[in-house]
Design brief:
Family: Belongs to the class-II pyridine nucleotide-disulfide oxidoreductase family.
Helix content: 25-40%
CATH topology of the largest domain: FAD/NAD(P)-binding domain
CATH class of the largest domain: Alpha Beta
Number of strands: 17
Organism: Periconia macrospinosa
Largest sheet: 7 strands, mixed
Pfam families: Pyr_redox_2
Oligomer: single chain
Strand content: 25-35%
Protein name: FAD/NAD(P)-binding domain-containing protein
Number of domains: 2
Keywords: Flavoprotein, Oxidoreductase
Radius of gyration: 22 Å
CATH superfamily of the largest domain: FAD/NAD(P)-binding domain
Structural class: alpha/beta
């Protein structure tokens, strides 16, 4: 039976970095890429030097080109993976959507995450455009805003909502925390916000009817059920996420309360031996620099496992 060292599922920064790292030790790998990316539609990426404020699509394309030009042991398969079957800790059978089947020694899941939007009409329209999940990734270009909002809607509540509000306060004169009529969230948030500068932060408890276009194209308006509205330069919120693909169920992977695959740093091994999870699917901190780090570290760990099996005398 012919084996390839590693199956990498996902062609974002984490998967690409894993492939590049494995190539440095002459490991063979196939990177499966179905072109599904959480930041699809985003015009810019940030916090990666020389790529700051440049296109994520161009970054992925340049990264792939760089790997193919310099290394011969990495293959790219532009196809979805439909099934991963574990035969042993060092044998995984990977089935793709075109009917192809390959055998691998290890698996690195870099599948990214799928967002589950809260029940607020218009949320999906503004997600990634005027609703930002991270104010290190987005928001700087909107600095100096008169007002910005935080959607204090689970899973964003309590200390996390206050943290996001303080991030927003660096970029806006005033910050409104919207609890969307949730009394429990409001009760938890009020004592926290009371410790902050009162002229800067406020809580809005009314139920949100919908989000609509703002007075300008680069703003969003929060409409309430009572017919009034408030315009914001941007909103901040993290929706609940789940790992993309069927692999959590297929492999029996443990997950966190937030829906991510349980895979602790520094090497990102999952609860299933031989399987690693990197990038957005394995952390609530879904930013490109941490994806790059996790992809590199997991590849090093996978390399160590493969080499130990290869060179240790029985």
């Amino acid at each position: 039976m012919d084996f390839i060292d590693v199956a990498i599922i996902g062609g974002g920064p984490a998967g690409l970095t894993a492939a590049n790292t494995l190539a440095r030790q002459v490991h063979t790998a196939v990177l499966y890429d179905n072109s599904s990316y959480r930041n699809a539609g985003a015009n810019h990426m940030h916090m990666v030097l020389t790529w700051d404020h440049k296109s994520p699509e161009e970054y992925r394309s340049a990264s792939r080109k760089n790997i193919l030009e310099n290394y011969s042991t990495i293959q790219f398969a532009d196809v979805s993976v439909s099934k991963i079957e574990k035969k042993s800790d060092s044998h995984f059978e990977v089935h793709d959507s075109n009917g192809g089947v390959r055998n691998f020694r290890k698996v690195i899941l870099a599948v990214g995450s799928a967002d589950e939007y809260p029940s607020i009409e218009g949320y999906g329209k503004f997600w990634k455009k005027r609703i930002f999940h991270c104010l290190f990734c987005h928001g700087y270009e909107d600095r100096g805003a008169a007002s910005a909002g935080v959607l204090a809607v689970p899973p964003v509540a309590g200390g996390l909502a206050a943290h996001m509000a303080q991030n927003a306060a660096q970029l806006a004169e005033k910050v409104v925390l919207y609890t969307n009529g949730d009394d429990a969230v409001t009760s938890e948030l009020q004592p926290i916000v009371s410790t902050l500068v009162q002229s800067k932060f406020s809580i809005e408890t009314r139920k949100i009817k919908q989000l609509v276009e703002g007075e300008s194209a680069d703003s969003v308006t929060v409409e309430f059920e009572d017919g009034t509205s408030k315009s914001e330069k941007f909103l901040v919120h993290n929706p609940k996420t789940t790992a993309q693909g069927p692999f959590v169920a297929q492999l029996g992977l443990a997950t966190t309360p937030l829906g991510d695959i349980q895979a602790d740093g520094p090497f990102y091994a999952t609860s299933v031996p031989g399987v690693y999870a990197v990038g957005d699917c394995s952390t609530p901190y879904k930013v490109i620099p941490s994806s790059i780090t996790s992809g590199c570290n997991a590849a090093v760990a996978v390399s160590a496992e493969i080499q130990a099996a290869k060179y240790t005398q029985s």
